[in-house]
Design goal:
The complex is a heterodimer of chains A (91) and B (417). Chain A is built from one helix and six strands. With 91 residues, chain A is mainly beta. In chain A, the strands form two sheets. A four-stranded antiparallel beta sheet of chain A has the order 3-4-5-6, with no helix packed on it. Chain A has a two-stranded antiparallel ribbon with strand order 1-2. The longest helix of chain A has 8 residues. In chain B, α2 packs parallel to α6, α2 crosses α9 and α3 packs across α9. Chain B is globular, with a radius of gyration of 21 Å. The chains are: A mainly beta (91), B alpha/beta (417).
Chain lengths: 91, 417
């Protein structure tokens, strides 16, 4: 069970949240072309280590959060508001 | 490493079982091979076996990071079937099922293939129609399928809750030739079979880099030194992104956890593989009596190989909705494997942008049933440098070209999983 420290609600269980996928991909501008949209939609780094991801606090404040989580240990280094920058630990 | 037979069994029995020896060699890596397969799981071993068996390429090494049988090939729910809707899938999985049917004789190894039948339950009129369509698609491609009504299912599987208030069972789609096989024996049998054909199975040999010369692969760096090969196949499902990244390739794959569970042993209560149509739950009973079951993904990227409790609760509640007696059983073992999830649910068995480098991965929920077919197709793809018709659709480029094989009919979209 992950425990996610929502900046709006405090520490809550994973069961209140819905996973939203890779937060490192950026939607390209509308005229960027098919290749850019292919990369945006499909290609992934899929890191074994620190990962920046979206979580939606559906059963809480309903805010989208940016979470820095380790995909092996499941440690959470940072939980930020959707628009905030996050820093990824080096190790 | 002689052949196993009833005479051998009797003679060893008279000699106190002292003469069996090891089932496959433990060689040191040679400096170069014709083909290197990265990954000694089911798919890697099957690929090496069929390279030697059907393509005549025996100077092959299988490089396994740990030991044979400790990865996903030993972490699944052992289900074998070919009940898919689309020809791109059902012809491929049917080839695999046909190979399963002859695998024990071919390998001279008992993989405990049990064609006990796979029943997919349906709970509504629309689901019945969808299953009828799927069954028809299978039968058009020469695969066995039968649509059962409620009473036919009741006669076969009396322990189900037919009158569940929310999801009453209306019937099921049966594939009689589907069933289970003993997963560990599959790994051991393929390792022994490949080894007998001359393949070097090199354990405790982790690949740390893929060496390229321009756009060509020339070999791999490992924890046991550099090994050269003009052709390298990646078969490391779970970690396909990591190994492909060594060659500078990014893939449309995310890695997720899938849990499996085994209950305490009980007397025979379930003769078939049964899947729940109102959720994602599948169950069978092992020969030891344990009920083996699993469900959906944990829901977020992970390589931890540990499942978490919210999904465990979800899976078990689905199981209890289908088979109420499950609530009286204790779960003895639970574990998780790392799944490569592609964005359309269909695997990759294909060439890559790097010449001489091939990838076999993206197996999503369903790698085990594909083991022999995947090895057979991957061996063909590597040896001929072009795909067989069975895996022609399983390319990386299908995402770029919009030619996804989206089996559930929901349409491909990112973050499907």
């Amino acid at each position: 069970m992950l425990r996610i420290n929502c900046p709006f609600c405090g520490i809550r269980d994973e069961a209140e949240f819905k996973f939203g996928g890779d937060a490192s991909v950026k939607r390209p501008p509308a005229d960027a072309g098919a290749e850019a949209f292919y990369l945006y939609a499909y290609e992934r780094d899929n890191p074994k280590g620190w990962y920046v991801e979206w979580w939606h606090h559906v059963a809480g404040c309903r805010q989208w959060l940016k979470v820095v989580r380790h995909t092996v240990t499941h440690d959470i280094a940072q939980v930020a508001k959707a628009g905030d920058a996050v820093s990824v630990p080096q190790s | 490493m002689s052949k196993y037979s009833v005479f051998r069994l009797i003679s060893e029995g008279l000699r106190g079982q002292t003469g069996w020896g090891r089932a496959w060699r433990d060689p040191d890596p040679k400096p170069a091979y014709d083909v290197i397969i990265i990954g000694g799981g089911g798919h890697g071993l099957a690929s090496a076996y069929y390279l030697a068996r059907t393509q005549g390429i025996t100077n092959v090494a299988v490089l396994e990071r740990g030991q044979i049988g400790l990865g996903n090939v030993g972490r699944n729910t052992t289900i074998v079937r070919s009940n898919y809707l689309f020809p791109e899938n059902n012809l491929f999985y049917e080839k695999s099922l046909q190979l399963w049917e002859g695998l024990e004789q071919d390998l001279n190894f008992n993989v405990m293939m049990s064609q006990r039948g796979v029943i997919n339950l349906y709970h509504s009129d629309s689901q019945r129609d969808a299953y009828a369509r799927r069954g028809n698609s299978m039968r058009l491609n020469g695969i066995d399928a039968e649509l059962l009504d409620r009473e036919q299912v009741r006669a076969m599987v009396p322990i189900l809750d037919f009158d569940n208030a929310r999801f009453p069972i209306q019937g099921g789609l049966l594939q009689r030739r589907g069933g289970t096989a003993r997963h560990d024996a599959v790994a051991w049998g393929l390792a022994r079979g490949a080894d007998r054909l001359g393949v070097d199975i090199i354990q405790n040999c982790e690949v740390t880099g893929i060496r390229r010369d321009g756009d060509r692969v020339v070999g791999v760096e490992t924890t046991r030194g550099y090994i050269a090969a003009p052709k390298v196949g990646i078969a490391v499902a779970g970690h396909t992104s990591q190994v492909a990244a060594m060659a500078g390739i990014r893939l449309p794959v995310e890695s997720h956890l899938l849990q499996a569970f085994v209950s305490e042993s009980v007397k025979p209560v379930l003769d078939h593989v049964v899947t729940f149509g109102a959720g994602h739950f599948y169950i069978s009973q092992s020969d030891k009596g344990g009920l083996v079951f699993g469900g959906g993904l944990d829901g977020y990227n992970s390589f931890s190989q540990r499942g978490t409790l919210p999904e465990a609760e979800h899976v078990i509640s689905e199981g209890v909705a289908m088979i109420p007696m499950l609530s009286r059983l204790r779960v003895l073992r639970q574990w998780a494997g790392v799944m490569d999830m592609t964005f359309d649910g269909t695997p990759l068995i294909c060439k890559t942008p790097v010449r001489g480098l091939y990838v076999n991965g993206g197996w999503c929920y369903g790698g085990f049933k594909a083991v022999p077919g995947s090895g057979w197709c991957f061996a063909h793809t590597i040896a001929k440098d072009e795909p067989h018709a069975f895996n022609a659709a399983m390319t990386i480029e299908r995402f770029r070209d919009g030619a996804m094989v989206d089996e559930k009919g929901a349409g491909p979209f990112p973050w499907l999983h």
